[in-house]
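Duplicate of earlier report; Flagellin input re-posted below.
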Amino acid sequence: MQIIQRSSSAGISKDSSASATGLDQAGLAGAAQGSTSANGPAPGASAAPPAGAAPLRRGLSNWDQPLQNDISSAQQAVDFLEQSAAQLRTLKTDLATKLAARQLRDGQLEQQVRQFSDTWRTRREASGGSLDARLNFSGGEPSSQRFTVRGMSLANLRSGARETLAISVGGGVQGLRSVHLSPGLSDGEIVARFDGALAPAGVRVSSNDDGELVFSTGESDWPAVRDSIAVQGSGVRFPTGQLNRLRAEPEQPAVMPENWGVEDIESMRDTLQQVMGALSHVEAALSKVRQELNVATQRAQSAMPQLETAGVEDLATRFAKIAGEPGYQSLMALTSALVGINRDRVVSLLSLR
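Output:
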């Protein structure tokens, strides 16, 4: 399973932060710079931070966005896989129990099969698009659908004279791509030519052990690609004339609950074997995604911004000065600066000293 590696401020509203010029803009900017004197300009005198001041860094906004996407996608995938594994374990146990007792259908097994089928149909949405039908985890990237096309084998493409193929994916003129084939091309060169031609249309190309070209596209784009892929040749490998529709065969999913049946003893035995295989796939995927989640979490922890300690005394002085001033503006500055600050945050900050 391939893993592909991939800010938000909270607590201060846009309006309230705009009104807190004395503390939020002047005081905090001076604290971030770490070099402003306690006797600096009066609160509210200037909204612009001193020259060379470091930008104010606020918590999660300092994480790079791809890292946040990795963590979010991995957590969604873990949740989906854990739910699926729990349902499969229950179904496996009940199937084995009823088979041992030679107890035929009573409605419970049918309900459990339907429940898992419903869960499996939500795979893409529930995992945030990070798990494909083979349970490969794609991180912050959308999941893909792999497929083969009848006639697109390396043996067929190697043979014959020079030919230019016009391939349509997605329909329309923009989806029409050209691939030039000639005698003597290696398998790698053929794959590279198809991949280079189709990549702008959102389709990537590789090959499998059976010598077939393997195409992949975004899972959300798969229906459009499946229903529109066509080719036109010059009569060497593919017919000339109009574009000829090709049959795209999707890669078999890791789990196919639509094939499960519990009508009789034989179908229950067959379903039990398939459930055990599905559970094995799900648990293997869950283990790998958990590892990726741990790695991403460790990266996030190491990337957490270090609190600026320089200028803290200056900030405290400014805060005390504003607190001692009467008037509505000073009250607004203090209340907006304190929004979202609670005891737990204060204790956490003090523990870093």
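The longest helix spans residues 265-303.

Merging into the original ticket.
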